[in-house]
Specification:
This protein has a two-stranded antiparallel ribbon with strand order 1-2. With 353 residues, the chain is mainly α. The chain is globular and about 65 Å long. The chain has one domain: ABC transporter involved in vitamin B12 uptake, BtuC (Orthogonal Bundle).
């Protein structure tokens, strides 16, 4: 049963297995283990970014494609669901319609970009995707009558996902099971299913061909595989997964806007998560997304505590000021790349062998 779920791709390291099990248990029980709005927001963001980072790793780590348009597909999913709910009202049918429209648009754009651009060299493809993503961001901010411009759109979700909804009259393990908890488990289950689906894809014959193309595309072409076709299909699958991640993010936030889904800073975060976790290993998406988002949300608080505890020591309070959290995050990234050049998962797997 476990082999079927993991598609035969086991962690191959006791430490990595323990880390993945801990993350799974933590996310499964997050509303009950970590009470409070900040904690459940962090857990939901981890679930969504695991899908987003894994879908990008399908391109970068498994196929060798460098794309800067991934946040565009993330934004298409967010805007598809958000604008549908804003325009037509809060219902499950409208959510389904928004996801379907976003998937069609996202896959069509990915196929068009792939067919027109994947024949060129890698750096030129990266520049083309960057230009397309920038154009889409510009469109989203300029068409303010439809998209809300830079302010985005706030919308309602179905009543069962709203905080005022109560599934149980009495608290469960000290936690009130309301619509917010149900929304979290919708995100969690959807993210788990999407991650296992991608794990199945990369361990299928299709996934093996993608890895062969990554290692030597000329040899794969000589063996009879149509490289452009496989790269385009990988681009479409990754785009569809990013669209679904964006839809989940919009449902969770009950908001969509350029800064939430289309910002280039999100693209940089995705790249950092892939590198930290390990390219070419979907488990790296789990480790990288979890470490990065936890650091992003709690490093400032930890530094504030450290600054208060070292008030009597010269320079240290200023160095540990919460406003300098990006500096420490950068240092952590450099150290992780130095000590884990193949990513954390790659290092743990080599140690396991």
């Amino acid at each position: 049963m476990l082999s079927t779920l993991l598609s035969g791709d086991f962690p191959r390291s006791r430490i990595l297995t323990g880390v993945l099990v801990a993350v799974l248990i933590g996310l499964t029980l997050a509303p009950f283990l970590f009470p409070g709005a900040a904690a459940i927001n962090t857990a939901a963001k981890i679930c969504i970014f695991i899908v987003l980072v894994a879908s990008y790793d399908l391109l970068l780590g498994y196929t060798g494609i460098v794309s800067f348009a991934h946040t565009m597909f993330f934004g298409i999913g967010g805007y598809g669901v958000g604008l549908a709910l804003y325009t037509f009202g809060a219902s499950w049918g409208v959510i389904g319609l928004g996801i379907l429209a976003a998937l069609i648009l996202g896959i069509a754009l990915a196929m068009l970009i792939g067919l027109l651009s994947l024949r060129v060299r890698a750096i030129f493809f990266a520049m083309i995707t960057l230009a397309v993503a920038s154009a889409f961001l510009l469109l989203a901010t300029q068409f303010s009558e439809f998209t809300g411009g830079e302010d985005g759109r706030t919308f309602s979700v179905p009543p069962v996902l709203r905080p005022g909804y109560r599934l149980l009259e009495q608290p469960l393990f000290g936690t009130v099971v309301n619509g917010r908890i149900l929304a979290y488990y919708l995100v969690f289950v959807a993210a788990l299913v999407l991650f296992l689906t991608m794990l199945r894809i990369v361990n299928s014959p299709f996934g093996r061909v993608l890895q062969a193309i990554r290692e030597n595309d000329m040899r794969a072409e000589a063996l009879g595989y149509r490289v452009v076709y496989y790269r385009t299909m990988a681009n479409c699958i990754a785009a569809a997964m990013a669209v679904l991640a964006g839809a989940l993010y919009a449902i969770w936030l009950r908001y969509t806007g350029p800064e939430a889904t289309l910002s280039f800073a999100i693209m940089l975060d995705i790249l950092l998560m892939v590198v930290i976790g390990g390219m070419g290993t979907l488990y790296g998406a789990v480790v990288g997304a979890t470490l990065f988002i936890v650091a992003q949300n709690y490093l400032q608080r930890l530094m504030a505590v450290g600054a208060s505890a070292t008030e009597g020591i010269p320079l240290l309070p200023k160095l540990l000021h919460p406003d300098r959290w990006l500096l420490f995050l950068g240092v952590l990234f450099v150290l992780s790349v130095y000590f884990f050049p193949t990513g954390i998962v790659g290092r743990l797997r080599s140690g396991g062998r």
